[in-house]
Amino acid sequence: MLPKQRQDQIVRALRVDGAGGVKVLAERLGVSEATIRRDLEQLHAEGRLTRVYGGALAVDGCDQPFADVNAVRAQEKDRIARRAAELITDGESVLLDIGTTALRVAQHLHGRSLTVVTSNLAVLEELENDEQIELIVLGGFVRRSYRSLVGYLTEESLRQIHVNWLFLGTSGVRPDGRVMDSTMIEVPVKRAMISAADRVVLLADRTKFPGHGVARVCEPGELSMVVTESGADEATRAQLAEAGVQVVLA
Predict the structure, then answer these.
(1) Which GO molecular function annotations are given, in alphabetical order (predicted)?
(2) Fewest Cβ atoms closer than 10 Å to its Cβ: which of 54, 105, 142, 247?
């Protein structure tokens, strides 16, 4: 693979994930970590990404279309989503975060007697015709690129509700178990969601362990459970378990 092709793939990967570590990018592209570090430095100099310790972040304005993100690691996301849906008992209330894994959770809820609350416009489209589900959509500013609602109205709506379950997405989990996000505008909404739920379940595939992000969403102790897959970094999983978080492999 030519350096230009490899660097374009790095930028595309960051646009999908929001952030990426040197080790994960090296494994994904089949090159050495030293090669990835050189590529990241060059791409940072060109303004195509932001270099951070251990990896890089996508630059502002680089959101991928929702359908493109949804196609990445689709089977892994679906296994995680199916396992998450199995946790819910009929009659309970569920809060679904933005993102493509949350959409896949919604796809596994059809026909069940549940209350679903969301700021995810893709979840709205998925469930709006299912008469078994009581669907509540939070207000807010429409972030079209990622099919989400954000802002003061979203946060204020969340202060008026309380649910049994929150299924939360992330840009990455730090080695110490902190949950991070690389999109600053989404972080206050995620924090408000955590405050509105009895049980907080983080949904994250193995590429998010360990991960990166510019803003802290929550400490590991604020999570009830993490649903992930085999191959997720064992040291990070151990930190979560030490904080009292149940780690479930899909």
Answers:
(1) DNA binding
(2) 142
Say how far apart CA 73 and CA 41 lie, in whole Å. 27
Q: Residue 239 is which amino acid? A: Q
| Residue 88 CB partners (closer than 8 Å, separation 6+) | 94, 109, 112, 114, 164, 165
Q: Are 239 and 175 in contact (CB under 8 A)?
A: yes
Name the helix (H) or strand (E) containing 203: strand 197-203
Instruction: Give the model confidence (pLDDT) of 118-156 as tens digits.
Output: 999 999 999 999 999 999 999 998 887 778 998 999 999
Q: How far is CA 46 from CA 35, 49, 99, 212, in A?
A: 17, 8, 29, 21
Residue owning tokens 């303004």: 47
CA-based radius of gyration for the chain? 18
Q: How far is residue 170's CA from residue 236's CA, in Å, rounded to a whole number?
A: 15
Question: Rounded distance, CA 67 to CA 144, Å?
Answer: 12
* Helices marked H in the chain: 3-17, 22-29, 33-45, 66-71, 74-85, 100-107, 121-127, 152-158, 187-195, 234-242
Quick one: pLDDT at residue 132?
Answer: 97
